[in-house]
Amino acid sequence: MKARTLISILLLAALALPACRQGGAGQPQPAARTLRPFPMPEVPAVYTDPAERTEYLLDHFWDRFFAGDGPCDTGAVLGVEHGEVEKQVALFAQLLGQVPMSEAQQKMRHFFSQVEQKQAADTASHVFLLMGEIVSRYLYDPNSPVRDEDLYLPYVEGLAASPYMREENRPGYAYEARMCALTPYGSVAPDFRFTDLRGRVRSLHGVRARTTLLFFSNPGCYACQEIIGTLQAVPGIGAMIAGGALAVVNVYIDDEVDKWREYAPNYPADWLCGYNADRSIRDGHLYNIRAIPSLYLLDADKRILMKDAPAERVVSYLQNQQNR
Hints:
The chain is of the alpha+beta class. It folds into two domains: 9-180, no CATH class; 193-323, Glutaredoxin (3-Layer(aba) Sandwich), CATH 3.40.30. Helices cover 42% and strands 11% of the residues. It is built from 13 helices and nine strands. A hairpin with a 2-residue loop joins strand 1 (76-77) and strand 2. Helix 7 (149-161) runs antiparallel to helix 8 (170-180). The longest helix is centred in the middle third of the chain and has 21 residues, at 101-121. The chain is globular and about 65 Å long. Mean pLDDT is 89; it is low at 1-25.
């Protein structure tokens, strides 16, 4: 089961990310307000096992929402206030983190089919456009605390193939789908070489540890510094590294190697730090690195546990490993 941190819904409600590109005929404008609360599914009392209740909730999360109608514009989606729909998309993503990835992806496909079916019932509706923007923003935007390319993949594949997608936008979503399909959860992370501070050429697969944290960073990057501080503050992380339970591989993938060397003493001494001299990561598209910093978590066999993961999820995983 894929480990994820459950992010506070209040935090997600305050999330204000730039709007994604449009997938429909144009940005809908607000209409007269006749709004309704988001209709949460009611789990029958016969389901008492927590796993069964989660399964039912995921299978029926959107049923009552798509069964309703109402204003569908920049202020609301099917009569539910836009911000409330965003919170429910975030909650849905969190719940998906409690089931195996293959199952979670299947449920995302079902969710997309519900969006398409609602659009088909009223082709003048903006539901396809609005839901696509929300899902893209929360699951794919590099700044989102619940971003998850593996969960986004089934949805963006649907966007790229849907008859309701504008033709001029289809190639962009098809490209996103191809990038999200790189290094999927459970696959072996692509190997690459990096040159360390002593000039030695090393490889990712040559690193031996029960867990490997692959950290793509830039010298002087403020967000990178924040993550370094967050990781160093994890109790016992030094002991994990010293004992072989964890290796942190910190890699620079750009061209200003002199600046990297000058800055490198700022990195923790027990990390493996290097630069990708042959540019195989950047030019070869081994990884879908859309922004720096980017974190990947790998198991002992270098299989991907998390890709481009928020630091909070990584920290939660490491803490859970220590408690086992």
